[in-house]
UniProtKB/TrEMBL annotation, chain A:
This is Thioredoxin domain-containing protein. Belongs to the SCO1/2 family. Residues 43-206 form the Thioredoxin domain. It comes from the Bacteria. It comes from Pontibacter amylolyticus. PANTHER family: ELECTRON TRANSPORT PROTIN SCO1/SENC FAMILY MEMBER, LINALOOL DEHYDRATASE_ISOMERASE DOMAIN-CONTAINING PROTEIN. InterPro entries: SCO1/SenC, Thioredoxin-like_sf, Thioredoxin_domain.
UniProtKB/TrEMBL annotation, chain B:
It comes from the Bacteria. Residues 27-116 form the Cytochrome c domain. Keywords: Heme, Iron, Metal-binding. It comes from Pontibacter amylolyticus. This is Cytochrome c domain-containing protein. The keyword Phosphoprotein does not apply.
Length: 216, 141
């Protein structure tokens, strides 16, 4: 706990170092003019995931504060999905294992079938995956909020009776930085792309100080 | 002329026999593998390892031997409820594949039985058809 806290505190001070990584900022950007000392300067405002609030497998509220100062990977799925979801989850497990001991990284999986995927169903699912809820949140909520946040992550998710299981959705894994900017979108069913995602995450993390590394 | 026809018939006969035996043993390894990749690998994974305690393995699964007589029905009609595979409980529900024909089910099963690290006896299409005729009782309990 202490270790986790100190890592967090340290990270908050050095957030700017993530800005130097080569990963692109995805999504629409706006140019905003402002005046500084009589000079016109243009700021680029990157697409940012808006505030959100969902409920996880422990009935805890997961909000934008939960992911504050974290790098997180997010996806959309449903527990009864007859198609790509188990593959996505087996790939997500690889990310989980790679960063299991790094409190700066989190995973956030949204169900797109909140009617079926209640807290209890998500609890059972997470238990069977044998993962820790501090690290990997499985969240449910209002259907509309889930579908609209999916759009913000640039992921398609909607109901469609024609589709197997009743939903269309993409297998995308979205990489989000400490400031809720989308920094990468990967095919979560493709091990090669997930390899790249696992390599990209450290680029967003502040370099560990020697001191820190010794502590671990 | 007559002899030629006879030979032709003979050749055709062998060919027919050959195709028949092929059908009988349903030896289309490729079709089995293709169908497995298309319909099963999403959940059971390409190597049949399954997914933790959510999706049971097919690789080295004792279930394949202990429940040989139910396998065709499981594929055709899906499976729900708690099952035990290699000592672990699973209870997630597998969807039905109503559209698969007995021949296709035979090929998938033979792929599973003789790959993914398994070395179990193969199925004939007759055995699969016989199982499929008796599925009802499985669905009712």
């Amino acid at each position: 706990m202490l270790l986790g806290l100190s890592a967090l505190g340290w990270q908050a001070c050095s957030q700017s170092s993530s800005e130097t990584s080569d990963l692109p900022y995805l999504g629409e950007r706006q140019l905003v003019q402002r005046e500084v000392d009589g000079q016109q300067v243009t700021d680029t405002v990157y697409h940012r995931i808006p505030d959100f609030a969902f409920i996880n497998q422990d009935s805890q509220v997961v909000t934008s504060l939960t992911v504050q100062d974290k790098v997180y990977v997010t996806d959309f799925f449903f527990t009864t999905c007859p198609t790509i979801c188990p593959k996505m989850k087996s790939q997500m497990l690889r990310i989980y294992e790679a960063f299991e001991d790094d409190p700066r990284v989190m995973l956030l999986s949204h169900t797109i079938d909140p009617q079926h995927d209640t807290v209890a169903v998500l609890r059972d699912y997470a238990d069977r995956l044998q993962v820790n809820s501090d690290k990997w949140h499985f969240v449910t909520g209002e259907k509309d909020s889930i579908y609209s946040i999916a759009l913000q992550y640039m992921v398609s998710a909607m109901e469609d009776e024609e589709e197997p299981g009743g939903f269309v959705h993409s297998g995308a894994f979205v990489l989000v930085d400490q400031n809720r900017h989308v920094r990468g979108i990967y095919d979560g069913t493709d091990p090669a792309q997930v390899d790249r995602l696992i390599r990209d995450i450290p680029a967003l993390l502040p370099k560990k100080k020697k001191k820190d590394a010794d502590k671990n | 002329m007559l002899i030629k026809t006879k030979i032709l018939l003979y050749v055709a006969g062998i060919a027919a026999l050959f195709t028949l035996t092929r059908c009988f043993y349903s030896d289309k390894q490729n079709e089995g593998e293709q169908l497995y990749t298309q319909y099963c690998a999403n959940c059971h994974m390409d190597d049949g390892s399954g997914l933790r305690n959510l999706i049971p393995p097919l690789a080295g699964a004792d279930y394949l031997e202990n429940h040989r007589d139910d396998l065709a029905c499981i594929i055709q009609h899906g499976q729900t409820g708690n099952i035990v595979v290699n000592g672990k409980n699973y209870n997630q529900g597998m969807p039905a594949f109503e559209h698969l024909k007995p021949g296709q089910i035979t090929n998938i099963l033979n792929y599973v039985q003789t790959n993914l690290g398994n070395n179990n006896p193969r199925f004939t299409i007759q055995e699969v058809e016989k199982q499929l005729r008796k599925c009802r009782h499985l669905l009712e309990d």
